[in-house]
Design brief:
This protein is mainly alpha-helical. It contains 6 helices and 2 strands.
């Protein structure tokens, strides 16, 4: 007599696998880059080299995988904190979007570098 496969033995592990893979699907690169250009982020930042600000690769290395990493990067790009540029303190510009999904997409893109 053969055993029947119970649906939960297949679907539950599949659901966990899909949930775990969700962050790997990542950001919409084109939309994130468009918002970064529109917000002048690339004036002071580059993907892989430091300019007046740290590279997105360095930002990712610092915050990716940390419980509050996404929150910290979101605050950095949306709350106009004070930052030092060439030894001078100035206000970091906020990203030019009030759409939470667009901002989240940009943060995910930065953290995926």
């Amino acid at each position: 007599m053969s055993k029947s496969v119970r649906p939960h033995t297949v679907f539950v592990p599949l659901a966990f696998a899909l949930a775990a893979a969700a962050p790997a699907w990542g950001a919409d690169d084109a939309k994130a880059q468009a918002l970064a250009r529109k917000s002048d982020c690339l004036k002071c930042h580059a993907v892989d080299k430091a300019k007046d600000g740290p590279s997105f690769k360095d930002v990712s290395a610092k915050y990716k995988g940390k419980p509050d990493g996404e929150q910290k990067v979101t605050a950095q790009i949306s709350t106009k904190p004070k930052v030092k540029v060439c030894g001078v303190e100035e206000e970091h510009p906020a990203v030019k979007s009030t759409d939470a999904a667009e901002v989240k997409n940009l943060v995910e893109w930065i953290l995926s570098r």
